[in-house]
């Protein structure tokens, strides 16, 4: 018990943990920028003949939260938002504007053995965007791509260096979340723990049952990506919402 006023400073630390499964792996919202928890009620006023109410009754409640964090975490995205069967090994990588020059009308890209998807061709010195066609080109300005072999074919007169963008896979690194079209009502349930320490005084808020409504991946020129994660809390199976712990004032 302390008579010293308690204050809070900084973004705090936020954890999430999927519920309803055995041995869930807790995840931390890394590089947390901010987190807000809004608790609101509806109210109803009783009026008589005067301007101000005689009584006010409090009705239904709502708890919503928003977290902004910068660290990308596949486990957090899957367990707390997408709710897929799991995170699998391997990743899809995008090569942007790999420069190569046709030899005998052909270019075989660097990562052709695990080629996945063509993302376009631009002539390096003119900026011309080439048009993809299904057969071997007979005029400049067109190209074809075999997405099985990662081989690009150009017209014999197209000898300029090309900037080629494409996707390829890497089975040995990274992680994948395959996002399926789930039935309505399907969503992961998780608990949230927000904690903060300032001048040895601790605050911990736990919300036992939460569901997320929005995940925003936000890019910005000359800045870090900061993700927005919105969620809402509700009663758990024991009809409890959570708990708020403070240093005793």
Task: Characterise this structure.
- The chain is mainly β and 249 residues long.
- It has 2 domains: 13-41 and 55-87 and 177-246, Pnp Oxidase, Chain A (Roll); 90-173, no CATH class.
- The protein has 1 helix and 15 strands.
- Strands 1, 2, 3, 4, 12, 13, 14 and 15 form an 8-stranded antiparallel beta sheet that branches. Strands 6-10-9-8 form a 4-stranded mixed beta sheet, with no helix packed on it. It has a 3-stranded antiparallel beta sheet with strand order 5-11-7, with no helix packed on it.
- It is elongated.
- The mean pLDDT is 95.
List how many beta strands DSSP finds: 15
The 3D shape can be described as elongated
Query: How large is the count of helical segments?
Result: 1
Radius of gyration computed on alpha carbons: 27 Å
Unreliable spans: none
Q: Taking all residues together, what is the mean pLDDT? A: 95
- Domain tally: 2
Which CATH architecture of the largest domain would you pick?
A: Roll
Name of the CATH first level of the largest domain: Mainly Beta
Give the helix/strand class. mainly beta
The largest β sheet comes out as: 8 strands, antiparallel
- How would you spell out the order of helices and strands? EEEEHEEEEEEEEEEE
As a percent range, the share of helical residues equals: under 10%
The name CATH uses for the topology of the largest domain is Pnp Oxidase, Chain A
- For the terminal residues, how far apart are their CA atoms? 7 Å
Q: Roughly what fraction of the amino acids lie in strands? A: over 45%
């Amino acid at each position: 018990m302390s008579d010293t006023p308690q204050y809070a400073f900084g973004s705090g630390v936020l954890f999430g943990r999927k519920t309803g499964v055995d041995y869930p792996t807790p995840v931390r919202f890394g590089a947390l920028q901010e987190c807000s928890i809004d608790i609101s009620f509806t109210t109803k006023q009783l009026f008589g003949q005067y301007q101000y109410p005689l009584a006010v009754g409090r009705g239904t409640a709502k708890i919503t939260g928003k977290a902004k964090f910068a660290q990308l975490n596949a486990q957090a995205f899957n367990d707390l938002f997408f709710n897929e069967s799991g995170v699998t090994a391997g990743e899809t990588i995008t090569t942007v504007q790999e420069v190569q020059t046709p030899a005998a009308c052909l270019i075989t890209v660097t990562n052709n053995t695990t080629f996945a998807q063509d993302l376009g061709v631009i002539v390096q010195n003119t900026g011309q965007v080439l048009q993809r066609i299904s057969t071997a080109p007979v005029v400049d300005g067109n190209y074809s791509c075999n997405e099985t072999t990662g081989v690009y074919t150009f017209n014999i007169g197209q000898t300029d260096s090309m900037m080629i963008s494409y996707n390829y896979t890497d089975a040995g690194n990274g992680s994948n979340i395959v996002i399926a079209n789930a039935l309505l009502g399907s969503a992961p349930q998780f608990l949230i723990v927000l904690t903060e320490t300032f001048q040895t005084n601790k605050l911990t808020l736990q919300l036992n049952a939460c569901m997320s409504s929005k995940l925003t991946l936000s890019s910005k020129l000359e800045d870090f990506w900061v993700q927005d994660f919105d969620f809402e809390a509700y009663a758990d199976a024991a009809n409890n919402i959570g708990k708020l712990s403070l240093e005793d004032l």
